[in-house]
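tool=predict chain=A
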Amino acid sequence: MHLSALLSAGQACFSALPPHATMGQAVTAMVRQQKTAVAVIDDGCLKGIVTRTDVLRSWESEVGQPPEQMQLSRIMTRELVVAGPDKSFQQALECMAGSDIEHLPVIQDGRLLTVVHESELLERHIGAMHEDIRQLQEYIEGLHNAEKD
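tool=predict ok
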């Protein structure tokens, strides 16, 4: 299964804010969308991503700084690992594990399609594996039943 399956399944929901938005706005967007990351978009281009980890690190390092005054451009992760929609779930998971990241922006033709969390990929990947196992069991049962006849 490829990342494009997430797009056709309606799971392309993500929050996006401009670089001048604040950490407070990012946290509000994450809570509303029930996501753990916000894409930072400027002039239609992905400039970075702010994750809950970025928020926690910034909160700790900027003690006393109100979240409403901390711009995303200061706290966002700028060097991103991205994938195209043609990447398989397995490839995406391996890429994420190798890069020690939990969020993977999916980009096509320079446009952000979605941001996936590794738990979404694992859930779908495991579901697909269960379906493969079920089909193999049916196939084996069919072979056993054919031998009996």
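The radius of gyration is 20 Å. The CA atoms of residues 54 and 89 lie 25 Å apart.
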